[in-house]
Amino acid sequence: MALKLQKMKRDAFWDSLKYILIIIVVYGHMIETCVYNSPFNQAMYNFIYMFHMPLFVFISGRFSHIKDREKYLSRMLTILETYLVFQFIRCLKSLFTDGSFSLFPNILIPKGILWYLACLLLWRLFIFIVTEELLKQYKWYVLILFLISGLGIGFFIVLDGTVIRFFTLGFFFFMGYYSNEQYLKTFLQRLPIWSTFIILSSIWIFTFIMHNIDIRSVIYFGSYYDNPPISPFYYFGGRLFMYIFAIIVGCLIMRIVYAKPILSKYGNYTLAIFMYHIFIIMALRPFFANHTIPSNEIILFVYTIIVCTTLTWIIKKFRIATIILNPFSYVLSLCRPKRIKY
User: Fold this and answer.
1) CA 53 to CA 216: how far, in whole Å?
2) What is the pTM assigned to this prediction?
3) Going along 196-263, which residue ranges are E strands?
4) Handedness of CA 126, 249, 263, 317 (dihedral sign)
5) Which residue in 64, 55, 65 sits closest to 120, CA to CA?
């Protein structure tokens, strides 16, 4: 009797969470251009950067287990391919702006949002080299290592932002890696939904009151010595505080999504949206700066929905949009001999 192999069913919760997060990422980049236009934009910007990438990185860690080392390595190579393709595109920018073009070493230095792919590769390479057996055996050592290094990296002068993010967000990646899905979902079920909304609203009000603080720089960037004359230990405490807030807000967001994962069918498009949306943002920035188009609080969210909806439709409708992410892999797949099905 012939057995039919079925594709593994995707989890509606994780797919919906990923799509909602990519909308928040796009919204964060949209606000970034107009962040100082109003206290609301500053507060929303701080609120978003408090949790969106830590939670995204947490999900990346959750799905970074090695089931097949060969397939795992192959997936790492496709991520590297996407990184190199878009790095090359970003390197072309100087050709059109000042007529220069320098491929090396610029292609090795992540530009803009490509830090995420670079860090993802490094975290997964860490897992691949260390092996899952050792990682499971020394679970708490790994978590403590990344927590201490994430907090301590600020005491050193590190010029590259990707290196800083590797350490500051590595803790969230391995929290996701070590998370138990059954325990996590049981925990989320036990959180009262109305209390979740109340706590989340209270945290947003707090960020609105403290909207002048640049949360993004505290958790993501630079050394603690970049902000004299305040003591570096003030920023150390600030980063620790942000770690705690990122965990709390991340859990609250997951609880809301878990209650109604309505966008799960779009979860497979998040990487492509992440890679393409920044070009639209870059195209809009001059219009925001010159006030050619409106950029108030409401319209920025409308722009975000339009961008995400349009990109989702394009990616779903036109296969070329996904081929661009991995063009060499696509060409190689065409060259492989097709297996005959019996």
Assistant:
1) 11
2) 0.89
3) none
4) negative
5) 64
Are the C-beta atoms of 274 and 321 separated by less than 8 Å? no
Instruction: Quote the CA–CA distance of 273 and 308 in Å, as a whole number.
Output: 7
Distance from the Cα of residue 207 to its chain's centroid: 21
pLDDT at 342: 47
| CB neighbourhood size of 320 (10 A) | 11
Matching residue, tokens 């100082």: 36
**Which residues lie below 8 Å from residue 196, measured CB to CB, with a gap of 6+?**
252, 255, 256
10 Å CB burial of residue 129 (0-12, 13-18, 19+) is exposed
Q: How many C-alpha atoms does 151 have within 13 Å on its Cβ side?
A: 16
Q: Is 318 exposed, middle or buried (0-12, 13-18, 19+ CB in 10 A)?
A: exposed
Token couple for 304:
């975000």
Task: Output the CA angle 324-220-35, nearest 5 degrees.
Answer: 80
Nearest to 301 by CA among 36, 45, 7: 45
Cα separation, 180 vs 150, whole angstroms: 23
* CA nearest neighbour of 254 among 18, 10, 11, 9: 18
What's the CA gap between 18 and 266, in Å, rounded? 9
Long-range contacts from 67-75, C-beta under 8 angstroms, 24+ separation: 69/128, 72/124, 72/128, 73/128
Q: Which amino acid is at 165?
A: R
Could you give the angle at which helices 297-317 and 39-62 cross, rounded to 10 degrees?
30
Please return the burial class of 304, using the count of CB atoms within 10 Å of its CB with bins 0-12, 13-18 and 19+.
Answer: buried
Give the CA angle between residues 301, 304, 310 to the nearest 5°: 145
Q: Which two tokens stand for residue 175?
A: 């929290």
Q: How far apart are CA 16 and CA 77, in angstroms?
A: 26
* Confidence (pLDDT) at 94: 66
Q: What would the pLDDT profile of 283-339 be if each residue is shown by its tens digit?
A: 998 888 888 888 888 899 999 999 999 999 999 999 999 999 999 888 888 887 665
